[in-house]
Amino acid sequence: MRDVAVIGCGMTKFGELWEKSLRDIFVEAAVKAIDDAKVDRVASMYVGSMTPGLFVGQEHVGALMADYLGIPHIPAVRVESACCSGGMALRLGFFEVASGYSDIVLVGGVEKMTDGADVTYALATASDQEYEVYHGVTFPGLYAMIARAHMHKYGTTREQLAMVAVKNHRNGALNPNAQFPGQVTVEQVINATMVADPLTVLDSSPVSDGAACVILASMDLARNSDRPAIRVIGTGAATDTLALHARADVTRLEAVNRSAEAAYKMAGVKPADINFAEVHDCFSIAEICIIEELGFAERGKGGPFTEQGHTALAGKIPVNTSGGLKSKGHPVGATGIAQVVEVVEQLRGTAGKRQVKNARIGLTQNMGGSGASSVVHIFTNA
Question: Which residues have CB under 8 Å from 202's CB, separation 6+?
């Protein structure tokens, strides 16, 4: 396979974008990425989007976005893998360029969640309809079960869960694209409106609109460009049982562990080599479990690891420097690509006040449902 690089990126601000449609926000992010890459053509396009049919009544998103971007006739397809649709779209675009079939590919993610759809119902389609949804459980409920199990098994505290949200809002306050850049305290998180015990609304990622896009190119082409190239050195994906109750240990996110192992092996690196990471903190407990599965913290020690400041901006392994899903926002189809945008900015050294010192290797981890699908990518400077 050929080496592949990200040579351009762009995204919208995340939030309640009432005056812009699904196609508007995608085109805005795509044009920014194309301009950033300084390219005049793309060979094909992959669009990560979880469920636009339920959110805004629109399917056939690949063709729609190619049309409104002004590049009809190219191959364009929507990719769906619940909340890791964007990350999976990047993986497919990567393989198209790595295979030698195409030299330049646009990969994006988009979701419009605030236009009046039943968001809880739409998101619940990513869980097991017969065993979970039928009985009334929602994703906050599923992650609350994970949280309670983790607290019981490992002694993780309520305060440690809250510290994830506090840290991510602190980072998000430095991100101009963040939906909720305001900072919060541990006490505010714990005392906020309860969603599913022990998780409050401030432990939970918001409902968001937004889009993000990147341009992938062969390394040969990237070297001839005047744009800083960020090389994709590893990718890994895996799945797990859709239903939470079918897992041997509900405190484990096996798909995250397996996708990370595959990415580490391909990249030829270890967890200790990663300088910073963007992970799927849809709920505070998710980040704690994920950093354990990625090998940053010992099994069961994600809570103390967070409390000790190791995942802070100046910590041992900064996690979610963008503010994460919690502060930056979570337009589900766009999240995986927005994570890549943050990694590109960090490796270019253009992340401003949230810049990680001596950043050389970055990782993204994007997850669907309650951990039934996961994709990990690893990046470095070309």
Answer: 162, 165, 184, 188, 189, 192
Quote the CA–CA distance of 299 and 107 in Å, as a whole number.
34
Q: Which of 169, 280, 330, 377 is catalytic?
A: 330
pLDDT tier for residue 382 given thresholds of 50, 70 and 90: confident
Phi-psi region of 207 (alpha: psi -120 to 50; beta: other; left: phi over 0): beta
Q: Exactly one of 83, 213, 282, 289 is catalytic; which is it?
A: 83
Instruction: Compute the distance between CA of residue 85 and CA of residue 270 in angstroms, rounded to an integer.
Output: 26
Cα(325)–Cα(165) distance, integer angstroms: 10
Using CA atoms, how far apart are residues 49 and 84, in angstroms rounded to an integer?
A: 9
**116: which DSSP letter?**
S
The answer to whether the CB of 209 falls within 8 A of the CB of 16 is: yes
Q: What is the pLDDT, as a whole number, of residue 254? A: 98
DSSP state of 109: E
Q: Is the pLDDT of residue 208 over 90?
A: yes
Nearest alpha carbon to residue 308 among 155, 160, 158: 160
Q: Is the pLDDT of residue 367 over 90?
A: yes
- Write the CA distances from 15 to 53, 136, 228, 260, 368, integer angstroms: 20, 28, 29, 30, 20
User: Structural domain boundaries of the chain?
Assistant: 4-118+207-223, 135-205+233-381
* Active-site annotation holds for 282: no
Q: Look up 289 and say whether it is catalytic.
A: no
CA distance 257 to 262: 9
CATH level 2 (architecture), domain 135-205+233-381: 3-Layer(aba) Sandwich (3.40)
Beta-bridge mates of residue 361:
380
What pLDDT does 225 receive?
Answer: 82
What digits encode the pLDDT tens for the residues 170-185? 999 999 999 999 999 9
Architecture of domain 4-118+207-223 in this structure = 3-Layer(aba) Sandwich (3.40)
